[in-house]
Amino acid sequence: MELKPIKSEKDYRNALQRLDIIFDAPINTKEGDEAEILSLLIENYENEHYPIEAPDPIEAIKIRMEELNMRQKDLVGIIGGKSRVSEIMNRKKRLTVDMIRELERILNISASVLVNNYQLEQK
After folding, report:
1. Which of 1, 11, 103, 120 could form a disulfide with 6 if both were Cys (CB 3.0 to 4.6 A apart)?
2. For each of the chain's 123 residues, which pLDDT tens digit applies?
């Protein structure tokens, strides 16, 4: 296959099909190099045409808690008492800078994700 920029959905589908064929090609071979370059072209096209939005801070916390098999009660002491944890996780109150620092340290979630704005629940 001739390598060229992916400019359309048709190009994208063709590139995916070709990559599927040569995916397991040995490294440092003609097909291996083609697979590597094709992967980069596909990734670039997908980032441009199918961007994945980062989750809002509360969703990011929930996702990370699930990965770590944590429950909401496990956040007590990290972001405050039981009622404060409930308020934060139910979107009644916003995260504070101190909470963000602790969540970044304990859950290893980037502060850049946690500082994003998110919708509070209406009272």
Report:
1. 11
2. 678 999 999 999 999 999 999 999 899 999 999 999 999 999 999 999 998 887 899 999 999 999 999 999 999 999 999 999 999 999 999 999 999 999 999 999 999 999 999 999 876
